[in-house]
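Morning!

This is the sequence you dropped in the shared folder:
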Amino acid sequence: MKNINYRLQEMTNKLSNKALFESNGLGNEINFHVFDYDPEDEYVVRDYLENYLMKRTKLNIKVFDIYDIIIDILKENGFLEKCFEFEKKKGAKYLNDLISKTVGIGSGKNIIVKKIKSEIEPNQIIIITGIGKCYGIVRGHTILNSLQSVITNNPLIMFYPGYYDGQSFKLFNILENDNYYRAFQFVSRK
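The structure's back. Tokens below.
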């Protein structure tokens, strides 16, 4: 098994390769990838993204933290403070369902997808983070399914705190998630 630092360096090398902008599947599949990692490596991955990849490389990268996007949407709509009250009165599950509906998860009115679409540029590498932080509100496969009609020419890499085998997700290496077959594992663990 490769350690996380080795895998992150391998990822940097792959991000620098022009082949990333070409579809690499036999059937010209979408250019979506998953960089899965053990949840205990979360802070190593965050540090890498913030202090190395975004500051020390000259790559054209745009990072979207799904959790931060959700918080921004709630603030913009004057709903964030109300969420704290709802959680106290009705519990976290009720609140998560309410937030999911508010931001339009899984619907044609998905505000997260609209925000991402409005901020991407040609020849930009799209990185999705924050999947673990918003567990209960949105799932990784839901984000990918929603984005595949919006991001058609940019490579996308979703950072995933758990296991992805090319067919299904296991959030935090524990929680089974729905299947998703259209993304490639970006850097193998072996």
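Headline: The first strand starts at residue 32 and ends at 37.

More detail when I'm at my desk.
O.
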